[in-house]
Design a protein that fits this description.
Elements lengths: L1 H7 L3 E3 H19 L8 E4 L2 E4 H7 L7 H6 L7 E3 L15 H14 L4 H11 L11 E3 L1 H7 L5 H21 L1
Antiparallel strand pairs: 1-4, 2-3, 2-5
Amino acid sequence: MAAFFAMREGGSINVLKLAKLLYLADREHLNRFDMPVLFDQFVSMDHGPVTSTTLDYVNGYQEDRANWDTFITDRSGYSVGVATGTMSTEDLDELSDAELDTLEAVWGQFGHMSRYTVRDWTHDHCGEWEDPHGSSTPIPYERVLKFLGKEHHAAIAQEIESVRSLSKSLSLAQ
């Protein structure tokens, strides 16, 4: 997903803008299909909601970066970029057509915005975000689903957490 947005931005993207686009894409996919793409932990930070583990990858805090480094360069100042200059959407074959459609829709709505404009948009339109005043606080999936107007938000959130737990167990078993 990060490589997709970096490619759309011309090969390099501001970290704040990327963090917002990743969150908005996961949120939009949740809205469309009742499932996120990343299955990441959402958190409220001063600059708005983010996908926590993915932001750790962006910032270089994750140790197992083999797959990440295939697609994204190390952070340089306030930007990350596409790992290879010849990457195209076809190289993002782990993303489904539905996921790519969601990414395209999010890019269409927010790609033209500056990092601060998209940040401000998340503050004003993502009701699940609460200002943590210099800290970070988790945003449960149930809360996001509730603000998206999902009728069965608790059941959907429980299913997402089950998938996250199974995925974590399988990765530990490898």
